[in-house]
Specification:
- It contains 4 helices and 6 strands, in the order αβββαββααβ.
- It is of the alpha+beta class.
- The protein has one domain: Electron Transport, Fmn-binding Protein, Chain A (Pnp Oxidase, Chain A).
- A 6-stranded antiparallel barrel has the order 1-2-3-6-5-4.
- β4 and β5 form a beta hairpin.
- The N terminus is likely disordered.
Amino acid sequence: MSPQVPAFREPSPLERIFNKAFGILVGLGLAPRGYYLLRVRGRTTGRVHSTPVNVVELPGSRFLVAPRGRTQWVRNAEAAGEVTLRKGWTSRRFRIRPVPDREKPPMLRAYLDNFKMTVQRYFPVHAGSPPEAFAAIVERYPVFELLPFNEGEGAR
């Protein structure tokens, strides 16, 4: 990561309150399609942390994008190698695969196009831009492919 790119964009106190309230609604299943409550084990404490996220779907794959950069949930997910997505009473564990920068532009474009009302402020590129417009900013945004556990592999 280049020195001028911040590790992540810290949420404001108001954003923290909104995320907490919205996370409760998502956890209850009262959120639009594509919104989930991400649960991940902390890399130092082992405590499970939750935050609302958007999942972008492309043919045959699902992806998590971190619009604020290398946030705590990103670092925890990298350390754990897995996350749980919850919506209402449904909960599902996934292995994660970090997406290399060269593969990110179509995912970032789809993410911004699908969730522009809530995430446009984190992107210097506008929704509707071609994938090439994202090439210069890919290093700012961690992207993970969500991979299902094989039968028996994810049981705890």
